[in-house]
Write a structure and sequence with these properties.
- By secondary structure, the chain is α/β, with parallel strands linked by helices.
- Helices cover 32% and strands 26% of the residues.
- A nine-stranded mixed β-sheet has the order 14-13-12-11-7-10-9-8-15.
- Helix 4 links the parallel strand 5 and strand 6.
- Helix 4 runs antiparallel to helix 9.
- The longest helix is centred in the C-terminal third of the chain and has 20 residues.
- InterPro entries: Gfo/Idh/MocA-like_OxRdtase_N, Gfo/Idh/MocA_Oxidoreductases, GFO_IDH_MocA-like_dom, NAD(P)-bd_dom_sf.
Length: 341
């Protein structure tokens, strides 16, 4: 029986997200965790025994098949191009780059060399959203009318280089395309700056997908409570996903009218059954790593590609452009990369 050698994986960045990547890499089946790049060293004791080196070149010299890029967003392009040039596959934390141009250069660098590369849009691996996507694909909701997301919480002091649009709203932009399978064609947004920082800390956006579905996103760093809410409303009812608890519920439209006049006036649409689904709840980050490992091995794997990650950066840039110029921005598919292409 032929045995397959473990893949050799490295990590770049041992910050708040990198520490979680280190934990998962250290226990990932079929993978040897061979090294970490962080000039600050292992100040949190999170290296899992992997050696710490100072530069990406030193990590490449250790002989890695792929690397996880978890350094600040502004360094993603530089580090990614370095890995691509060395023939190393990469899983890049989201957003894939801090500019559209940078994202396009990364796509070209990896695609031209035939290297597997993905983006860590972790919500794609949330059990509730994976179940929601499968149910939408099966037609359980019928025609989809609207997607609404709310992503709120207190300011994360780990973030210094980008605002709430690139750090948080990119989650909602990507998951909307992921669960519906459709493209943004327009977006209109408003941002505010309340915390005294250079970057925006709240955004409200309204968009439209290529099938006519309406999209609403509310994202902020100004709320004392944490909320991760996604609802999809269609002809047969409404799915609601809570990605903090990985719960998915379905509120169906009723076939039986409400006869009590007071309730009828208060509730509007006739209320049907509510179903809370039993879902296997595996850790999303572990699922993400397993999928990427399989992709590097050449197996079919449902990863977020660099091209899909680039599309999300394009939509995020349009959100910021809309807020800056106080106008709706068109996102025509023929002019931009197709989400999922």
């Amino acid at each position: 029986m032929t045995t397959v050698s473990p893949l050799r994986a490295g990590l770049i960045g041992l910050g708040s997200m990198g520490r979680h990547h280190a934990r998962v890499l250290a226990g990932l089946e079929g993978v040897d965790f061979v090294g970490i790049v962080d000039p600050m060293g292992d100040k949190y004791g999170a290296s899992q025994g992997a050696p710490i080196v100072n530069t990406v070149d030193e990590l490449i010299d250790l002989g890695v098949d792929y690397a996880v890029v978890a350094c600040p967003t502004g360094l993603h392009e530089e580090v990614g191009l370095q890995l691509a040039g060395a023939g190393v596959c990469a899983l890049v934390e989201k957003p894939v780059a801090d500019t559209v141009e940078g994202a396009r250069r990364l796509v070209e660098a990896f695609e031209s060399r035939g290297l597997v590369a993905g983006v860590g849009h972790i919500e794609r691996c949330n059990p509730a959203l994976r179940s929601l996507r499968a149910r939408l694909e099966a037609g359980e909701l019928g025609d989809v009318y609207q997607v609404v997301t709310r992503r709120q919480g207190p300011f994360p002091h780990r973030i210094a280089d980008v605002g709430v649009v690139k750090d948080l709203a990119t989650h909602d932009i990507d998951l909307t395309g992921f669960v519906t399978g459709h493209e943004y064609v327009s977006i209109a947004a408003h941002t505010v700056h309340k915390s005294g920082r250079e970057h925006e800390d709240m955004v409200s956006a309204v968009g439209r997908l290529d099938d006519g579905t309406m999209v609403n996103h509310l994202v902020n760093w100004l709320s004392p409570f944490k909320e991760r809410f996604t609802s999809v409303t269609g002809e047969r009812g409404c799915f609601i996903a809570d990605t903090l608890t990985a719960d998915l519920t379905f509120h169906s439209n009723a076939a039986v009218a409400t006869e009590w006049e007071v309730l009828q006036a208060f509730r509007g649409v006739s209320e049907g059954d509510m179903i809370r689904y039993a879902i296997q709840k595996r850790e999303p980050l572990l699922v993400e790593h397993e999928l990427f490992r399989d992709a590097v091995l050449g197996k079919p794997a449902d990863i977020c590609t660099l091209r899909q990650g680039m599309r999300t950066v394009e939509v995020a840039a349009a959100v910021l452009e809309s807020a800056r110029d106080s106008r709706s921005v068109s996102l025509q598919s023929e002019d931009l990369a197709i989400h999922g292409a």
